[in-house]
């Protein structure tokens, strides 16, 4: 024994040196309800008592914060713990859907808390749906998890949740030898399992020495004697709500007939609890002279009440676990605790079709005194747990290992599957060209095809299908597995249905067009469709400057002006799919006419078409060409000629570009004042010519609070194609879109 003690001390010293002598283990304890706090509180007191080793952060969520369940967070405050965060995570409804929604709400809120706390380890207790959300969040955020009471067996959905948390947890504290064996059978690492006993037993085994009569009188009345009252605590069984409510009715009928003073605690927040409360009220329990109905009793007082009761009845785990420490008779109803280890004080009533069976059980059990049971602990769990926490080496790999039994290796492998690259088929429908590309998961354009965009609907759709089929066939030759087709197109798009609602004059005969159906039918692949501006924003979010940025705007400066807005990492489409039509922000009431029919739009000033229009005017007046420029007689005047003239000192060309840059800058200022992004990305062939002008206008015209915005030029060569590909690739990697 001396040898092993010295060995343990030496190991702890080595770990302290590895972790850094001054490093305190930052422990986050998250508690969801009155029951789990009774198990976690002794550990929290132990951690708080050793500030030289630990820092404690307390997170409170779940039914702790609900008035109907007693606002039990107050007992945590009364125990003098600082609550770091309160998270309202319960969606009321007390049905199956509400439980699922509560888990989802907790998953939404917890990442922000864990990011701020940055704990070294999170302690999670038991088998509640709230605990599953805690364990899932911590595991995905690479936070070590210590799970209390894993490996136990009981009825209902709790079993599945408990074992799911076990698979997410890195360390395990179990209460019984059987639970330890179950964890080992579940392939958990034996070195990371501690058989400590139940932490609540550290309090229970010293509880009887305290004054108890005053507590009994407070909760049950002045005339009540010890061993002459009943404590009832029954919860819904989520896998058979209807039957559990029926059994609760029979229980109340039996208790009324038995005619003893009874303390009834309200059920927990599980699905079916609302119906159980209705049953209580229907039978008048809250006003019955023999009953006291309460939402919550502080754990210290609850211990005294069950320790000196004539009987406890219900289906709470407390009945089969903690109450055994006092030898109080227990009647366990239904299947909720099926599989739990119990002492001889527990009488099981698995099923009851009438109240007589329960009434008979009450007559058998009431007033008896059984030997005290220590199945779940010996009163020394907390010191063992603290020692276990101190032994954790934070420099060990976070990835947990499972101890699987040996199995025969499968040597069969598919070389084609190994070599294939998961890819998307991307389609870009521009005003001039139609392009199709095979794009890999990393954003590499493996193969690209380009054709002129036909003028009629029939020819255009025929060409799209032909090019897509050709590209899909070629994908096999370049070892690419096509996961789906993403289509980027000009115009207003309903991405949910894959329909182009209508387009500008740049693409003719392109309104009310169902793109998804014919492409999907031809290729037998899923198809996504969106506006080209939105696709450019998606490309930036996945492959470009927008990667990891919560709020940003992309502006395309090409033949037209478009863009996309990403807010809180998600693309904004708007109520009628018209969000981010940034080219049609009006910057002048009497400006030039735009293709949309309005006047003074950004697109009427700064698009390639607008610059081409101004270049033609100068050319017609013989004011475009300057020394160093030449044009062939048949050559069409374009925006490129205007830019070249400005570079060679043509003051009129310079003035036009300056006006275009100012118009674009004013539009950006309007965007900054509307959605307040942290980043503006200029994309397209004209982006480099406009970036400085946009920055100047922001400095001159924007409010001081948005002047710090970053304005950058996209580094993506083909944002429309990459955005179309990201429609597919984001889905295959389970991003929400």
Automatic annotation (TrEMBL):
The active site is at residue 532. Zn(2+) binds at residues 584, 594, 596, 601. Pathway: Amino-sugar metabolism; N-acetylneuraminate biosynthesis. Keywords: Allosteric enzyme, ATP-binding, Cytoplasm, Hydrolase, Kinase, Metal-binding, Multifunctional enzyme, Nucleotide-binding, Phosphoprotein, Transferase, Zinc. Its EC number is 2.7.1.60, 3.2.1.183. GO terms for molecular function: ATP binding; hydrolase activity, hydrolyzing O-glycosyl compounds; metal ion binding; N-acylmannosamine kinase activity; UDP-N-acetylglucosamine 2-epimerase activity. GO terms for biological process: UDP-N-acetylglucosamine metabolic process. It is found in: Cytoplasm, Cytosol. InterPro entries: ATPase_NBD, ROK, UDP-GlcNAc_Epase, UDP_GlcNAc_Epimerase_2_dom. It holds the Pfam family Epimerase_2. Residues 53-390 form the UDP-N-acetylglucosamine 2-epimerase domain. SUPFAM superfamilies: Actin-like ATPase domain, UDP-Glycosyltransferase/glycogen phosphorylase. GO terms for cellular component: cytosol. It catalyses: UDP-N-acetyl-alpha-D-glucosamine + H2O = aldehydo-N-acetyl-D-mannosamine + UDP + H(+); an N-acyl-D-mannosamine + ATP = an N-acyl-D-mannosamine 6-phosphate + ADP + H(+). An N-acyl-D-mannosamine binds at residues 492, 504, 532, 581, 584, 603. Homodimer. Homotetramer. Homohexamer. The hexameric form exhibits both enzyme activities, whereas the dimeric form only catalyzes the phosphorylation of N-acyl-D-mannosamine. In the N-terminal section; belongs to the UDP-N-acetylglucosamine 2-epimerase family. This is Bifunctional UDP-N-acetylglucosamine 2-epimerase/N-acetylmannosamine kinase. It comes from Grallaria varia. The lineage of its organism: Eukaryota, Metazoa, Chordata, Craniata, Vertebrata. The gene is Gne.
